[in-house]
Here is the input.
Amino acid sequence: VWIEGMLSGVRPNVALNRPCASSIHVPRRRLHPTIRQIQKNHNVGDSVSVKGWIRSQRSQKHITFLDINDGSTANPLQVVVDTSKLALPNGVSFGSCVDVKGQLVEHRLSKPDAKLFELHPQHADQITVLGPTDLTKDPIQPKNNPLEHLRTIPHLRPRSNFFGSIVRVRNTAGNAIHEWLQKQDFKLIQTPSLTSNDCEGGGEAFLVKTPEELDQISKNVPSDKREHFFGTDFVGLTVSAQLHLETVACALGRCYSFGPTFRAEKSHTTNHLSEFTMIEAECAFMDAIQMNADMVEDLIRYTIDSVMKNNADDLEFFSKRIDPKLQSRLSSCMQKERWIRLEYGDAIKLIAQHVQENPKSELTKIEFGEDLSREHEKFLTNHFDRPVFVLNWPKEIKAFYMKLNDDKKTVAAMDLLLPEVGEVVGGSLREHNFDLLEERVKAMGIAQNLDWYLDLRRYGTVPHGGWGLGFDRLVRFVTGTANIRDTVLAPRHPGQCRM
Here is the structure.
């Protein structure tokens, strides 16, 4: 009847014998509690189900201890099995995934302000192996796995205690950055990954070509006669979101981005990646470089404080396994004294003085107009024993968009140097004077590609500034990790793009 009615164009008044969606009762399937939630919200005697991976297995005469972790905390939940009463099922071993049910018992190391539990299963069917492993072949072994080895297995590296702590710290730090910027009325912007501009002007962009374009290139078809997918010859992966963010800041005041950035720089240092995460912010009505530095210091202090409060167990792990001085270095950064503000000119004088007074020093002096090396950055942070902002750099070694100072030699730029890591933040006031900016881009031969950028100064220009923060470098600093490649899921660098 229904089909005949539909074919005739008349909807029949027929009640189909089927239940309404609102009458169907579907039981709710809530997420199971994580170990962190159990430690925080449950009490002795509660019956719980714990799902996770066995990180340690120790056996005594009639007792087996299983440490289970699900990634929610650095502290595993200890399962105590009385093997005189129940046998462990096949497949229970280090690395296997299990579901264990039982009652919570107070751990002997539990404290009133930091309660710890043990889980005591009572029946054999309360231990289920969800995913067994062959420990003879598993690349992750129940021993300290060298970081160099873990880099060769990025798909399994998250199962290590080290990388679990890295992920939790990244999560806390990222949330803290979002929180601070949102409280200051910054708006999160999703900027393009594909761009027709090389923001830094260093020629380090990865070019994007379709198979058809590559075929035309191989056949030596002239550029002006090729069919370009995007209608232009130059399209690359973004080296910075800054120029795009400025279009928003010059209309809506404050904005930021948090995402991947790419540099085709053939560098193999412990501080460089070809793909990395950047937080970039732009702020209208910023008219002093000190304002920029103060904003960055407040943000990073807030982030470090959040990690110290929320990831104490992870920081303890890093202090024991990676860097014994980590906790004291972080505490030093959180002291009341403001971080150092140092003029570029004073920085090179300080370096020259040190070289003169220490002839055998490996440090070399630099002249005005030269960039600071990693050794110079380390010297400055060690000299002051705290983070250092280097301000007002020579215009020749900074990007075209930075505001020219009154001396006509320097620009209102800043770099933040953190101990043991070096430069983590770079920022500046942006040149908002149309004539000065037009003159500079013409001198560099890039005016034809930046007419849209000049429009921001043509129509309702505004003093503004901003910065870019290397998130992976910040994580490296907060965790004491020696190599930036150990702070990201799948590091991309020259010669390496696994997964």
About this structure: The mean pLDDT is 91.
